[in-house]
Model the fold of this input.
Amino acid sequence: MTENTIQTVKIKRIINECDGIKTFFFDVRNTNLTQNNRFLKPGQFVMIWVPGVDEVPMSLSGYDEDGCWSITVKNVGECTNAIHDLNQGDYIGVRGPLGNGFEFPNENIRNIFLIGGGVGMVPLKWLSFEFHKMNYKFTLIEGAKKYDELVFVEDLHALEDSNSEILYCTEDGSYGSKEVASEAFEKVLQKYSEADLINSIAFTCGPEKMMYKVFQICEKYNIELQASLERIMRCGCGLCGLCALDPLGLLVCKDGPVFSSKILRKIEDFGKFKRNFTGKKISIEKRNKLN
Ligand SMILES: Cc1cc2nc3c(=O)[nH]c(=O)nc-3n(C[C@H](O)[C@H](O)[C@H](O)COP(=O)(O)OP(=O)(O)OC[C@H]3O[C@@H](n4cnc5c(N)ncnc54)[C@H](O)[C@@H]3O)c2cc1C
Ligand code: FES
Done:
């Protein structure tokens, strides 16, 4: 059995997070997925198979002591709609964990920034809770178009009494500051001196336009970045080539989805092009329902 063997799992619990977004906890006890528990890292993903519909990639949003893993799904199309129609007690197929996940910084790191948008908050919320357990202080910025689309606000309350800072921004100003997450990030950085920012790291996941701006800001302020990229995936394990990034031919499913600044600088597709289901390259500007 490998991480590429589909395992059938039962849905134990479902949470309505916000408009069109639900979290599903599924029981991995009595499956071979449990042997992968010790390798689980925020940023890794699973392929979720809905029989008769499709198989799609989903970031893991965590795992609990009761033997459940969780995913948080935005309803944007055929398969995610079918996932949203599932009830507690229903079964899905799961393959994973796949991909590399975020690299944890060492204890000498001075400043940690997390910048997320939309369902990009899924791996970042889990990462922020891991940092909290490790007593790392961080600044987390969550951005959305409007209040109804901010995810995990309730969960993140739990971090508010720590020394960490949680900031929200919305494009329509309905919650937090009225701006996009990258603007909020730059404003935060402007409060630090150049010397204070030495040995800082940022983590980002969300719409690629946002991540590209975050990358440019990090380059300007000399901050190391880890970005979790998203591409259309078929196989999730390096076979179909649909998630290839030019010009290096790196595969988001196998070499990523998390890439560091050193690699991001070389990916010409980053912030510019993605592939559609036929493999044809199209502009990233072409907005879809995910952002
Ligand atoms: C590594 C990774 C992690 C992901 N994590 C999450 C997550 O935690 N939560 C979540 O809700 N979604 C996540 N996604 C996106 C998710 O896979 C897509 O929303 C899903 O595949 C859409 O399937 P569908 O059949 O419902 O939509 P479709 O009917 O196939 O498409 C609907 C729209 O979504 C676009 N789309 C489809 N697949 C993708 C994709 N893989 N990336 C970007 N756009 C896509 C299509 O171009 C179209 O505009 C992740 C994607 C990747 C690659
Ligand atoms: S999804 Fe097939 S190679 Fe990445």
Helices lie at 78-84, 121-133, 153-157, 181-189, 208-220, 261-264.
